[in-house]
Automatic annotation (TrEMBL):
Species this protein is from: Panagrellus redivivus (Microworm)
GO molecular function: 1-acylglycerol-3-phosphate O-acyltransferase activity
Entry protein name: 1-acyl-sn-glycerol-3-phosphate acyltransferase
Written domain comment of the UniProt record: The HXXXXD motif is essential for acyltransferase activity and may constitute the binding site for the phosphate moiety of the glycerol-3-phosphate.
Pathway(s): Phospholipid metabolism; CDP-diacylglycerol biosynthesis; CDP-diacylglycerol from sn-glycerol 3-phosphate: step 2/3
Transmembrane segments annotated in the record for this chain: 18-37, 44-63
Domain Phospholipid/glycerol acyltransferase: 106-221
Top enzyme category: transferase
Amino acid sequence: MAVNHVHKIRILSFFQDMFTLIFAGLIIAISIATALFQSVRYTVKFLAFAICLMVSGTITSLIQIRNGRTPTNHFLMFKIFIASLWWSGLHADLRNHGPLEEDKPYVVIANHQSAIDVFTLAAMWPWNCVVVLKKSLLFLPGFNLCAWLCNSIFIDRFSREKAHKSLDDALDQIKNHKRKVFLFPEGTRNSKDELLPFKKGAFLLAKEANVPVLPVVFSRYKHFYNHDERRFDYGGKVVVETLEPVHPADFETIEALSDECRRRMTAALDRLDIELGADADKKAN
């Protein structure tokens, strides 16, 4: 019996040693590949970013579920998320943030570039604000329940009837709860320098609610992040600049209101691009 017991211990010890060696080998292999190959480094970082988002959402949901649905749940989630991204070196420079801190309703719009926008939103998120999100995000684990608890409005872009219902919900948030509503007027991610044509929803909402549109620009990420090039550099800087409110009553048509917001945002993005490009050149030299 004693011999069998010793034999079992040796077998168990052997498998433990083998598992340790395999695990260590995988860690070393991933580390070497990450150091040598930019595409691997990008994939590892992007997966880490997604995991941080899902874990942050899960933790927030478990803590805040007792509070029910309220926009104030955003702040804990975003605080945890930003802390979890310490490894990325991402940082944000908030400019002219005053209007976002005002306790009055706006339709807040911003350019939509990539998943990195979640970090940017976390850095700039205003008080008493809900966001309109595409319905597919309901299937992102961890994030989905957290977004629901934050009173987010999910829009089905493939159903006109359901999309109108979502905008009605947004209108209710503005009129009856005096909240800000955040939307991406491009409607989809766009990493190119030129903004996509704006959808009408945000501007129809502002006109119907009789509240100003508040354009916000997220500086272009291309100085540290590029999906096509598989590049996600450490220490990326994002400038978040809030522009002056645009009042729907000053425009005869929804198209004119949309065009003016797009014009102002394009000018601000181009100006910030020159500034950040100069900063990048200084670092390179």
